[in-house]
């Protein structure tokens, strides 16, 4: 089996959560490559959660919507929970008007809420001035 072709979409690891974002609209080929790359990373990294930030997207076509639904199902089969964060109101309205359903896809208002839902939390800084071993 060959490795998926890199899509240029960054996939970062924060503990056992993978974080990625769709910065531009994906054509069909890129959407399929992104799905293959992300599922490969879920399996390789043993991720238990995935956050996909779509806040930069102004439009999602039916193929990308279906791809997100399928990606969520694949991730679940691999033991990971997926949350799509940052959907713009116009995108949500368009999906509903077109009759497209993101069945099984969990959403969050923004990336921070999505990460919190996945159980990832920032460590609070202790009080006091920076320095002395503190950032």
Automatic annotation (TrEMBL):
What InterPro entries would the database entry show?
Bact_StressResp_Reg (IPR051932), STAS_dom (IPR002645), STAS_dom_sf (IPR036513)
Domain STAS span(s) in chain numbering = 7-118
A Pfam family name for this chain? STAS
By what name is this protein known?
STAS domain-containing protein
Which species is the source of this protein? Streptomyces somaliensis (strain ATCC 33201 / DSM 40738 / JCM 12659 / KCTC 9044 / NCTC 11332 / NRRL B-12077 / IP 733)
Q: What is the lineage of its organism?
A: Bacteria, Bacillati, Actinomycetota, Actinomycetes, Kitasatosporales
